[in-house]
Amino acid sequence: MSWTLNSAVAPPGPYPERLKEIVSLREHRAAVAAVSAWPGYAPTPLRTVGRLASRLGVAEVRVKDESSRFGLASFKALGGAYGVLRAGEDGAPQVVTCASDGNHGRAVAWGARMFGRRAVVYLPSHVTESRAEAIRSLGARVVRVEGEYDEAVARAARDAEASGWTVVSDTSYEGYDEVPRLVMQGYTVMVQEAVEQIGGAPPTHVFVQGGVGGLAAAVVGHLWESFGAERPVAVVVEPATSDGLYQSALAGRPAASRGSLETIMAGLSCREVSPLAWEVVSAGVHAFATVADHGVAPMMRAAAGGELGDMFEGGESGVAGLLGLVEAARRPERREAVGLDSRSRVLVFNTEGATDPELYRRIVDRGFREPSRLSESRSPTLPSDVSSPNRETLP
Ligand SMILES: Cc1ncc(COP(=O)(O)O)c(C=O)c1O
């Protein structure tokens, strides 16, 4: 694990006015009013993983479990569909478009279907065909882009410009930040649900996985405005090969990932961070960490098998925050740096369930059933270390 403390983090105090332009309780209320009226809306469960908490020597670990969100199996449904809704308020064009690692595209496609619009979704090469198919099944057109997530972002922007479509992106870029702001506000619906489910005192710590940083900004911004000086200590967790937020923390400004972007945590794979999200993240996050792929599969199996406490379906990107917590808690100097101790009440987000069901089953089943048959049928596109269970990553 790489680990760095954020020397620029704001001291305890109220949420800065300037950040309310990006994530705010006022805008959150509008998002709740809209999202809670959608068919099938229900708060997702908050799990308690007591066995893990005692192994880590903390008071409590709660997992906000997004694996059932709107039947799309990820929290992204909240942001992408809310972006489609709000971007369509002023009689905007009929076609919405975006780039995606899979989940955002599915959310935009679902939102477009719900609000009577058409969606075109650009997918970089690493996104599995099963995820592409899930997007098509919602009526969207999928365009494959040779290259990384960021190339898909650029292509969506270019084609939208040429065709007069509306871009509903989860990441901001120069001259484009209104819709990503709304997308982040959509995510805050999940954060508030967790706050209400926890009840009483706020969590002391939150570990949240990072892609472009929109999720982290929503989590940190919402908790900060809600709890002011009592806001939780926040740690952002990224794949070692896709570490744009970590690099940004080192540089003190938005910086690109230095890694290959190849990771089993597909939802977190991107080169650039969202500059808009970075405004909130850079002020509100206390530490940045990266985790290696080999810890993901054992964590998914542990979650599915109830080894951590309550069982849940943790997807590849879903368990990243939990993995970061486990890795951070192993080392006394990191525990001390962020004040993790026997009184800590930690919140993490299982941001996706089985968003690629076939891949999920291959990873999870191998640990429990039919190992020989499953290893024979291993996909050549899977990173090799996923196939070798590494129990060492659990304390
Ligand atoms: C399952 C999952 N978790 C976390 C994230 C990270 O969100 P963000 O890119 O806003 O940092 C994503 C992004 O697509 C995701 O799909």
In short:
The chain has 395 residues and is an alpha/beta fold. The protein has helices at 25-35, 50-56, 76-87, 103-114, 129-136, 149-163, 178-198, 214-227, 244-251, 275-284, 296-304, 320-330, 332-338, 357-368, 371-376; strands spanning 2-5, 46-48, 60-65, 95-99, 118-124, 141-145, 166-167, 205-209, 233-239, 287-291, 345-350. It has 2 domains: 2-74 and 179-393, Rossmann fold (3-Layer(aba) Sandwich), CATH 3.40.50; 76-176, Rossmann fold.
Q: Order of strands in the sheet with the most strands?
A: 1-10-9-8-11-3-2
What's the main sheet like?
A: 7 strands, mixed
Judging by the overall fold, what is the CATH architecture of the largest domain? 3-Layer(aba) Sandwich
Q: Give the number of DSSP strands.
A: 11
Could you say what the CATH topology of the largest domain is called?
Answer: Rossmann fold
Number of domains: 2
What is the helix fraction of residues, given as a range?
A: 40-55%
From the spread of the alpha carbons, the general shape counts as: globular
| Estimated radius of gyration | 19 Å
- Say which molecules are bound, naming each kind only once: pyridoxal-5'-phosphate
Count of individual helical segments: 15
CATH class descriptor of the largest domain:
Alpha Beta
The end-to-end distance, rounded to whole angstroms, is 14 Å
Described by its quaternary structure, the protein is single chain
Q: What is the overall pLDDT average?
A: 92
